[in-house]
Design goal:
The first copy, chain A, is built from 15 helices and 14 strands. Chain A is α/β, with parallel strands linked by helices. The mean pLDDT of chain A is 97.
Chain lengths: 344, 344
């Protein structure tokens, strides 16, 4: 038995190295909440919540406001009975980022207690993953310059943000393709297109002989019918991001045959529901990618261990710690360019 | 790292204490195959396959015939990378009982290596479960006598086999109810009814004021439309058993809204797919029960640890080890009447 004796929340502010501009959203920084749980024997587990106002309606203040609730529910709970803790966490309906931070901290502490590495506890599928790097929205020239730089840094996959201007987006993709041939591309419209714009985008890009590996969240998050329309009219695989937070969202998309891919982000679903979504996807021939909000290396660590443990993600978009200013990497992994490897 | 160095299959024959008669099937004994894996450090893990010819087309001979295949795939594999082993096991398409025995043996060895109890590795939800006990088909008098005996033995839930004779089945349920009032009942027709018979059965029993907790597999396993018809016309929850072997079967039933319950049996799905089916059911408000084939206590142990670890089963039908002649209980649990408790 290993009872939780204390829970701490620590708020940390980060600035982006460069303002992060996606369709209809612009960020210069992020405030995350680190969670530390400690057991009676003094074992500590760590997690990080990176709340997303845009996607989940959470803020760092709303996360912090739940500290007393978290303490009242978790203090005295045995981390070895982690499924009971996961069940309790399902009541934190509007704070999935906090759910992840707490659930991961519990698993982290449990694994430390038992001398197991988290990624091995989760299945030990692989000890390294490849991540893409993201180009946020700016001028065509800036986006091309950023892409060339990303290629030079050693990345093989570029995620390109679009969704504010169809004709400019098509130009951007063409130019980036011309200057970085040989790479793979994920295009993320962050809900920015109408269904017809999205189909037009996909068909035009396809007609130019450019391959897009994943076309992410082309349309409104609640418009599942249009997501399906785009899927059935796009030569490229269509992925839901904003449309999938919970496992119930995932099941609904599966029932409606609306997507080829689901982008799991621990900050949208919670950790235990991410495990559920993986099983749903693998049971229905839906492919998976894993993404992030504005996690520091502490939060990215959570996704890295999940991705290595389960080995089920075709694409990993785990680059937020590279886009913010962070004094030192505190994750339990080593990064070499595009490769993230869990420590042995 | 803990590499598998050897795998042994041991065939064991068991007799039923009393012939086991269900709709259109009659058994006097069972032949199971125990699996022992051993790592290079000498850690051993144990599992048991109880193949079902009727449900899965497996025999003990067909299981044993796969020994060389299992060795060629598993020898040298690291049990700490268990997700890779689970992935390999998915190629044993026609031998789910063997998949379970091997997958569980791997988890058993992994947990021994790390000094964790299997049920805690799986979530540690509860340390005991309640099982029902089964009355197989015979004369009305015999079935009533068996039910009274089961009640005297301390069981609160009786599973009653039906499906061969509608009018006699209704009489049996009435008589058992009259003589064992206060208990709960699961009725299992094992695919024996036509859809109209099944609906007639449910409505007649309901009209007599008798409550059935679960109405299991009323109709043909492949006739999902009829399963749905029964579900929508039965006052009692309808459960799929023979209709669900794989996670793909489970998803199909969920999409078609065909059932209220799924009966997971490790011998139908394999261990890792049972974990998937749990997530599918919990994402779609389907309830779960866990059942068995003809496992000895070695095989029942597998389901006990899953049921305690996850804590998601509304009903546990884990009684085959009580119905066969077994010299001693070898499972890692203690049974007191209807309560099965994992050892501390």
């Amino acid at each position: 038995m290993s009872k939780i004796k204390n829970i701490k929340f620590i708020t940390k502010k980060y600035s982006y190295k460069k303002p992060f501009h996606i369709a209809n959203s612009f960020a210069t920084g992020a405030t995350n909440v680190e969670v530390e749980i400690e057991t009676e024997e003094g074992i500590k587990g760590f997690g990080e919540a990176s709340p997303s106002w845009r996607v989940c309606g959470e803020t760092s203040d709303s996360v912090v406001s739940l500290l007393n609730k978290a303490k009242s529910i978790l203090n005295g709970k045995d981390i070895e009975r982690y499924s009971l803790i996961f069940k309790e966490m399902s009541s934190f309906i509007f704070s999935p980022s906090l759910v992840t931070a707490i659930e991961f901290a519990v698993i982290d502490a449990l694994c430390k207690k038992n001398g197991i590495r988290v990624w091995k506890f989760l299945g030990g599928n692989k000890n390294e993953i490849e991540t893409d790097k993201t180009v946020s929205i700016s001028s065509v020239d800036d986006m091309v310059t950023d892409s060339i730089k990303i290629k030079r840094e050693g990345f093989n996959i570029i995620k390109i943000k679009t969704g504010e201007n169809l004709s400019k987006d098509i130009e951007v993709i063409e130019e980036i393709y011309r200057k970085t041939k040989g790479l793979r591309y994920i295009v993320d419209a962050n809900t920015g297109y109408t269904p017809k714009e999205a189909i037009c985008f996909a068909k035009k890009i396809y007609s130019k002989g450019i391959d897009i590996s994943v076309f992410e969240q082309p349309v409104n998050r609640y418009d599942i019918e249009s997501l399906k329309l785009v899927r059935f009219n796009s030569p490229f695989p269509v992925c839901a991001d904003e449309s999938v937070k919970t496992k119930y969202d995932a099941l609904n998309l599966i029932k409606k045959e609306a997507v080829d891919y689901i982008n799991i982000k621990l900050m949208k679903s919670g950790f235990s529901q991410a495990l559920s979504i993986i099983e749903l996807a693998l049971s229905s021939n839906i492919k998976l990618m894993i993404g992030c909000m504005s996690e520091s290396s502490v939060g990215i660590n959570q996704s890295v261990h999940l991705a290595c443990g389960r080995g089920v993600f075709d694409f990993c978009d785990l680059d937020s710690h590279l886009l913010i200013k962070e004094d030192k990497i505190r994750g339990d992994f080593v990064q070499n360019k595009n490769i993230i490897r869990v420590k042995p």
